[in-house]
């Protein structure tokens, strides 16, 4: 079994690319990210790292868990060579989604980058935050 090195959260607008789209594909390329901090996060990801899949704009909730299946490579949508992509595979849908409203109301998640760096599309999640969100989702 692959050791999980880090936990992450990746945002996607579900009308553009949803959890169901990832499940249907079986493996997706996370591309189109044009933020330097998010790029650093993508470059730091390792195969086996787990990711919360977050629906932004519509739903605004964590809906599933994915795993990094291929580490950083040049984003195929970028002709400049500056931007990075990773590949992700779905692991499982959460028993119940955890909404942004719930996360904001929970003191244990007050420092989560989802809240403190809310414009960031790819953010770090601590192990304590990861476990707390999983508990909120029903395990």
From TrEMBL:
It comes from the Bacteria. It holds the Pfam family EVE. Transmembrane segments: none annotated. Coiled coil: none annotated. Residues 6-135 form the EVE domain. PANTHER family: THYMOCYTE NUCLEAR PROTEIN 1. This is EVE domain-containing protein. The lineage of its organism: Bacteria, Pseudomonadati, Pseudomonadota, Alphaproteobacteria, Sphingomonadales.
């Amino acid at each position: 079994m692959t050791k999980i090195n880090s936990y992450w959260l990746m945002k996607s607008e579900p009308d553009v690319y949803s959890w169901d789209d990832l499940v249907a594909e079986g493996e997706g390329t996370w591309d189109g990210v044009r933020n330097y901090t998010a790029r650093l996060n993508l470059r730091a990801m390792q195969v086996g790292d787990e990711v919360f899949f977050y629906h932004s704009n519509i739903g605004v909730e964590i809906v599933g868990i994915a795993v990094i299946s291929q580490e950083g490579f040049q984003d195929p949508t970028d002709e400049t060579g500056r931007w990075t992509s990773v590949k992700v595979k779905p692991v499982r849908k959460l028993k119940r989604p955890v909404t942004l409203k719930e996360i904001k109301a929970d003191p244990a998640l007050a420092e989560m980058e989802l809240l403190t760096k809310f414009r960031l599309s790819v953010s770090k999640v601590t192990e304590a935050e990861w476990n707390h969100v999983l508990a909120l989702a029903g395990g």
